[in-house]
Write a structure and sequence with these properties.
This protein has 138 residues and is mainly α. 51% of the residues lie in helices and 6% in strands. Keywords: DNA-binding.
């Protein structure tokens, strides 16, 4: 399963903010530059993460982005479910497939998708934010 760019950017933002020292913040522009992501795209991800209650954003002098979630409690699977579009892995509805009403492939892919999310549920933001490559950026 390939994650959308939106999910990728959202996870990068959370991982980066999880590595910041207490009281430290980052700006949307800093993160967009650091991760080579268009500002508008990163801003949409930050907005989503803020609405979910995982990121706190403050404006003005001394403002910026801070992690609002507890890294050891926020499950990666929860984040991915919230950022990935709903639906099946394979699009059987828009195509005229004669198997679409009883397709073993669709069921198998659905089972695989559930297993994917279940595996991600086994990891927290704290688990994935500790990678050596990310530590070098913080």
């Amino acid at each position: 399963m390939q994650l959308t760019r939106f999910t990728d950017v959202s996870l990068r933002v959370l991982m980066h903010l999880a590595r910041l020292a207490p009281g430290q913040s980052a700006t949307t522009q800093e993160l967009a530059t650091l991760y080579n992501v268009p500002y508008n795209h990163l801003n949409k991800a930050v907005h989503h993460l803020s609405k979910a209650g995982w990121v706190a954003a403050s404006r003005g002098r001394g403002g910026g982005l801070r992690l609002a979630a507890v890294p050891g409690e926020l499950r990666v699977g929860t984040v991915v479910r919230s950022t990935e579009p709903p639906g099946d892995v394979i699009d059987c509805v828009s195509q005229a497939c004669p198997l679409r009403f009883d397709c073993a492939l669709k069921r198998a892919l659905g089972t695989a998708k559930q297993a994917f999310y279940t595996t991600l549920d086994g990891y927290t933001l704290a688990d994935v934010a500790g990678s050596p490559a990310l530590l070098a950026l913080a």
